[in-house]
Amino acid sequence: MSNAQWEYENQDFLRARYEDKKWYTVRKHVCLECGKEYYTICNFRKYCSDACCAEAERKRTEERKLAHHSEHICKVCGKIFSSKRTDAQYCSNGCRQKSYRAEKR
Ligand SMILES: [Zn+2]
Ligand SMILES: [Zn+2]
Description:
The chain is α+β, with helices and mostly antiparallel strands. The protein folds into 2 domains: 3-64, no CATH class; 68-104, no CATH class. It has 4 helices and 4 strands, in the order ααββαββα. It has helices spanning 3-9, 11-20, 50-67, 93-104; strands at 27-30, 37-40, 70-73, 80-83. The strands form 2 sheets. It has a two-stranded antiparallel ribbon. Strands 3-4 form a two-stranded antiparallel ribbon. The longest helix is centred in the middle third of the chain and has 18 residues, at 50-67. It is elongated. One zinc ion is lined by residues 74, 76-77, 79, 90-92, 95.
């Protein structure tokens, strides 16, 4: 069982430790996905459960799909990349600069 899984299943225990303030490493966080308060000893945890973590990940993927709807092929390295700009030609600033230098020569 992973630490995260253990925490999900022992919220009552963690809350008790948090409330009696003897176990200082327990923190109260608010889940970024469902807004529920939960207790954790992991400073960088963002979600109350694996389900919320998965849901947030799914939303991020959706948003990315919506935001970057157009796919382009980089003129310099040939990599497929997505950009909000419909006239994007380079996958990165590095490639843009390379192309700029090549043109100058
Ligand atoms: Zn949650
Ligand atoms: Zn490129």
